[in-house]
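Schema walk-through. Below, the input block comes first and the output block second. Nothing else is stored per chain. Lengths vary across the set, and this one has 297 residues.
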Amino acid sequence: MEQTPYLKTKFPNDKQHLKQTLDAKLQYINDVKQAIDTDNDRVLYQLINNQEYQTAVMNLAEAEDNQMDFRMVDNLMEDLSHHLAQRLIEYLSEKFPFFYYEEEAHGVYQLYFGNWWDRRRFGLLDPLTVNFIFDEEEYDKLSRAVELSESGRRYHTDVIEDTTRSNEELQKIVDTQKERDEQYQQLSAELERLGEKAGMFESQETKARREAVKKELANLRSIDEKSLEVPKLIAENNAIILDYSKEDTILIYEQRAINDEFGDFEAFKVAVQNLYHDYVSQLPEVALTKKEGNLHD
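--- output ---
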């Protein structure tokens, strides 16, 4: 009886291939270490994402994806981010001088627009990808403000105008108090002459007039009750107008900062889009030494 083998396979035990694979991984780690030791940020960006580096910086149509290698050090992302941010922020301080950064956690950089009062948090800076991650709502607000400014309007022009008109209507209630008091006295006197209750033989015209007078008196009382709230409502509206006016002022500051540096908003968007290429391209090209490592590409 033929014995069944415990293992059946078509593939030989290729120790050489396994050794080469492990050597390549060790070499990648060694290359990353050398790039950090020598402050070779350009090579480090290539090691982090070879495909992005080759296509964006070297203008190659295709490039090898090395993300499997990068996963070996992805638990060091915060440390790598902190390391790369030092030189990057120094560069950004000249190219985007209106942006400021706060490292709220190790390697995590909050992005702020401006150094003026009530400046806005505008998103995040990602040093690993050399990318601004703008807060979508804040960016859209600025973009819309730029669009509206072309027609001489501000972002909150409509709501400020509507709230101002509301205040004007509320103020009329206060300003017409004397007229309402006089009208109330006249209508009360008329209702007294007509009598509070309908008589058995009175005309339909008298009945209709009595009801109309009562409705007018009720309306005046309602307006008088509302008038008691007018100062509070006007104060609330004024606070809204002030807040929106402040935000419009901040948006104007931001637009001026962009225009002073880039000329217009479109040029700013192009600079943001090309940031990775522009920054990494100007970093010094220094090859890794053969003694320490051989860059994978």
